[in-house]
Design a protein that fits this description.
The chain has helices at 3-32, 37-80, 94-159, 166-195, 207-217, 219-225, 241-257, 319-329, 361-370; strands at residues 203-206, 228-231, 236-239, 265-274, 281-289, 334-339, 343-351. The protein is an alpha+beta fold. The radius of gyration is 37 Å and the shape is elongated.
């Protein structure tokens, strides 16, 4: 039953109840006071007549109100569908007409703001495109001379090593390392600037297969440090594959880089648990290492742009900021637990979204044969 008929039915019930109440009271009073039945029937009959008149009058009075409300409801529907441009509403009832005027004014302002918003979005797209082209050009122009400095400093160091004293070799090596850091900083800043608007579609991604590719990219670093990378069975999640690959690559790379142990170990795993506030299921991933550790007072600092801690001369101060942005964009959180000289564990969460497509047969085979509780070292 439509809502307006429910309201009318309830209204009629209240009217009849209000009309019959005096009749019932008079009748009961006459019975209690001992009036004869003829008097009771006469009083009840008169009460019913009065009640009938009351109900009829209430119905006649309420009919224009109902008609006005029905017309207002129809007008609201046309406004909502955008079919009432230029129309005015008049029902003859001041309060109802005032509501229609207010509604029309609100919709007019909404349409005006929507037009402004659409224009602003278009301007933003044009500005973002110009910024992308500018950023790409600047980064390319900056990297070109840096490649020249790095290349010639390497030639100078290799070709004239025997002719240079320790100070000379140290100076050239410092120039070369600074150049490499500047190149990496430009690359990281380019990634950071593009993160907010160059997002890929969220698709099912098997994380064990992803981490096989991450490991291949980090093979040289693993070999240099003689590090072991242990990957437990991980789920298939809905995410931006490129962005989440960056998260794992950055965290694993840091776990290898900032490790002073003779046998560095990095472990990756996850648990599934409810969100502490919403109760919805989410994945909580961890990347654990046995490296140098981080002081508690630096836990927040390391996620800030351009912030490096201690004597860190390798990082650019962009990587972990990028990681946090990616995790938060996916609807997750990131934090860490650490103690100096005892290693660090980074935790981050990602919502559990239902995967509409199962993992491919090749992916399942790779997961079962290479990553089920195995060591990728």
């Amino acid at each position: 039953m439509p809502r307006k008929y429910k309201i009318q039915k309830q209204y009629a019930t209240w009217v009849i109840a209000a009309a019959l109440t005096p009749v019932a009271v008079v009748t009961v009073a006459q019975v209690i006071l001992g009036a004869d039945w003829h008097g009771v029937l006469l009083g009840g009959g008169i009460g019913l007549v009065v009640a009938g008149v009351f109900v009829a009058t209430a119905g006649l009075v309420s009919r224009p109100v109902r008609w006005a409300l029905e017309e207002l409801n129809d007008f609201v529907g046309r406004v909502a569908r955008g079919e009432a441009h230029g129309e005015t509403f008049s029902s003859g009832l001041k309060e109802v007409d005032q509501a229609a005027v207010t509604l029309t004014d609100v919709m007019r302002r909404v349409e005006k703001n929507q037009t402004k918003l659409a224009a602003a979005e278009q301007e933003l797209k044009v500005a973002q495109k110009d910024l992308d082209e500018y950023t790409y050009t600047i980064s390319h122009d900056l990297k070109e001379p840096l490649r020249g400095i790095e290349g010639f400093s390497k030639l100078l160091l290799d070709g004239y090593r025997d002719k240079l004293d320790d100070n000379g070799r140290y100076y050239i090596e410092t120039i070369r390392n600074s150049t490499l850091r500047m190149q990496q900083l430009i690359i990281d800043l380019l990634k950071f600037s593009r993160l907010s608007h160059q997002k890929q579609p969220l698709l099912p991604v098997g994380l064990n297969l992803m981490l096989i590719h991450v490991r291949l990219n980090l093979q040289y670093a693993l070999d240099q440090k003689h590090a072991e990378l242990h990957v437990n069975r991980l789920p298939t999640i809905i995410c931006d594959a490129t962005a989440i690959t960056e998260v794992f690559h950055n965290l694993i790379s840091n776990a290898i880089k900032y490790n002073d142990k003779p046998e560095p170990v990095v472990e990756i795993g996850y648990t599934e648990k409810p969100h502490p506030k919403t109760g919805e299921s989410e994945y909580e991933f961890y990347i654990r290492d046995n490296g140098v550790g981080i002081k508690p007072e630096n836990f927040d600092k390391i996620f800030q742009l351009f912030q490096r801690i201690g004597t860190d001369s390798e990082g650019t101060g962009v990587g972990l900021t990028l990681v946090r942005r990616i995790v938060e964009w996916h609807g997750g959180r990131i934090w860490l637990e650490s103690a100096e000289s005892k290693g660090t564990t980074f935790y981050f969460t990602l919502p559990k979204r239902e995967t509409k497509m199962p993992a491919t047969a090749a992916e399942r085979k790779l997961v079962e044969t290479t990553t089920t509780g195995a060591s990728l070292s």
